Amino acid sequence: MPTTMKRALFILLVICGSASLALGAPVPDANAATYRLQPGDVLQISVWKEQDLQSEVLIRPDGGISFALAGDLHAAGRTTDELRSELETRVRKLVPGAVVTVAVKAANGNRVFVIGKVNRPGDFALNRPIDVMQALGLAGGTTPFADTNSIRVLHRDGAHQSSVRFRYTDVAQGRNLEQNILLQSGDTVIVP
Fold this sequence. Notes:
- The chain has helices spanning 3-24, 80-91, 132-138, 168-172; strands spanning 42-47, 50-58, 64-67, 71-74, 100-106, 111-116, 122-125, 151-157, 160-166, 188-191.
- The chain is α+β, with helices and mostly antiparallel strands.
């Protein structure tokens, strides 16, 4: 095959490949994947070029942390970038031009609970998006005597608590898939 034909074929493949990627690839929602800090998470916080301002910090049960030169501040429910920004503002009052880094070292705070008639009830780390079916899988599936069409998902939002019904048979058969919700930190799946 002549060189000019090879080039033309290469350009055509690049154009077609780029077009299919652009048309077929879903655009991820940046806000949906943003990790929110929780009590129990362990953070690595450091200030660039400041050896004395590097530490591992545990988010307390009240949602707060303490860091040198910044004092106490609320961390739970924030993203690492939001927390970094506030830390940087506070530290810069005493260290001009400080550059702060916040990284999640251990995401121990985000957990979901599966209780009732499952093979391995307990709490499970929510280190990636998990829906109800996946949570049941983490719990080893249901026992033979479980009422799989009366499963409930409890969710607490501040002082308000809600309960969502989950019919396993419907989802297993590909019906009413909207009930297979993504779980949030602190949600409890109850299998009667």
